[in-house]
């Protein structure tokens, strides 16, 4: 467990997963073991969305890749590269064609192993500041590699009627619940505020969109994404790819209201 701290703020990171962000005694992050989701955050890469209806195949310039929901990155462990009292850098490396065990098999998937036809390195870094927590992502690898990226943090809810503010409009928890597993799309948006017992704003660079998901009332996932996967049929998921040019960088800032 890596712990970052400054003043009355504490961040806990478990093998690259943000499992705690406590500010002045208020916990913003969904806690493992609580109803709703077994994780606290994760990344969706190199695809976002389900592929079960496409026989778990995704089209790439190098042929079809075997992927499961939200890609294979989450099936690979992070390594810690560097840490200080207020920062930490984690990374994952993947060699093209390497089979990765699929944790969804056999209960939720027919695919025992996943693979991707490109090499890549994925870096996730945390920087704790007095006014917020920065989370940086850097993707590097083969020139022209297709990919999508989504960040999937879960926020703990403390009140009965939290509100999500996006693009000048209010989104209720009931609206998110009503959409179900597809997740509520918030297109062309770089900043969302969650108004609960305390208020926190999620600011982004590089993603351009969000989707919001929950199936319970004690947490909500507010997810920066490069592409909303339900905009196309699963067999056409490749239409949401962008292409890697050397490296690509993305940023998320969690900014609690003082």
SSE arrangement:
Elements: E1 2-6, E2 9-14, E3 17-23, E4 26-27, E5 41-44, E6 57-60, E7 63-66, E8 79-83, E9 87-94, E10 100-101, E11 113-114, E12 120-129, E13 132-141, E14 146-147, E15 150-156, E16 163-166, E17 169-172, H1 173-179, E18 184-186, E19 191-195, E20 199-205, E21 209-213, E22 219-225, E23 242-243, E24 247-256
Antiparallel strand pairs: 1-2, 2-3, 3-4, 5-15, 6-7, 8-9, 9-12, 10-11, 12-13, 13-24, 14-23, 15-22, 16-17, 16-19, 18-21, 19-20, 20-24, 21-22
For the biggest sheet, the summary is: 9 strands, antiparallel
How many DSSP H or I helices? 1
Secondary-structure arrangement, i.e. CATH architecture = Distorted Sandwich
Number of DSSP E strands: 24
- Cα end-to-end separation: 27 Å
Can you tell me the number of structural domains? 1
CATH fold type? Beta-galactosidase, Chain A, domain 5
Radius of gyration: 18 Å
Q: Biggest sheet: strands side by side, in what order? A: 8-9-12-13-24-20-19-16-17
Compact summary:
InterPro entries: Aldose_1/G6P_1-epimerase, Gal_mutarotase_sf_dom, GH-type_carb-bd. The chain is an all-beta fold and 258 residues long.
Question: What does the model show?
Answer:
The structure is a single chain. The chain is mainly β and 258 residues long. It is built from one helix and 24 strands. Helix content is 3%, strand content 48%. It has a nine-stranded antiparallel sheet with strand order 8-9-12-13-24-20-19-16-17. β8 and β9 form a beta hairpin.
């Amino acid at each position: 467990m890596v712990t970052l701290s400054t003043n009355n703020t504490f961040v806990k990171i478990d093998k690259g997963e943000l499992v705690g962000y406590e500010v002045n005694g208020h916990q913003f992050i969904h806690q493992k073991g609580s109803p709703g989701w077994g994780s606290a955050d994760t990344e969706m890469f190199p695809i976002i969305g389900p592929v079960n209806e496409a026989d778990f195949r995704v089209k790439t310039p190098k042929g079809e890749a075997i992927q499961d929901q939200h890609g294979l990155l989450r099936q690979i462990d992070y390594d810690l590269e560097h840490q200080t009292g207020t920062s930490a850098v984690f990374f994952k490396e993947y060699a093209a064609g390497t089979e990765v065990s699929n944790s969804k098999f056999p209960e939720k998937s027919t695919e025992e192993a996943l693979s991707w036809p490109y090499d890549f390195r994925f870096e996730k870094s945390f920087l704790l500041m007095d006014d917020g927590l920065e989370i940086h992502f850097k993707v590097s690898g083969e020139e022209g590699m297709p990919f999508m990226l989504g960040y999937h943090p879960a926020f703990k809810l403390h009140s009965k009627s939290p509100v999500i503010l996006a693009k000048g409009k209010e989104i209720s928890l009931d609206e998110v619940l009503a959409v179900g597993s597809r997740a509520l799309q918030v297109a062309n948006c770089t900043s969302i505020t969650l108004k609960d017992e305390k208020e926190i704003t999620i600011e982004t660079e590089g993603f351009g969109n969000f989707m919001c998901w929950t199936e319970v009332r004690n947490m909500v996932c507010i997810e920066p994404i490069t592409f909303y996967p339900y905009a196309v049929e699963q067999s056409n998921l490749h239409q949401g790819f962008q292409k890697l040019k050397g490296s690509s960088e993305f940023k998320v800032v969690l900014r609690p209201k003082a």
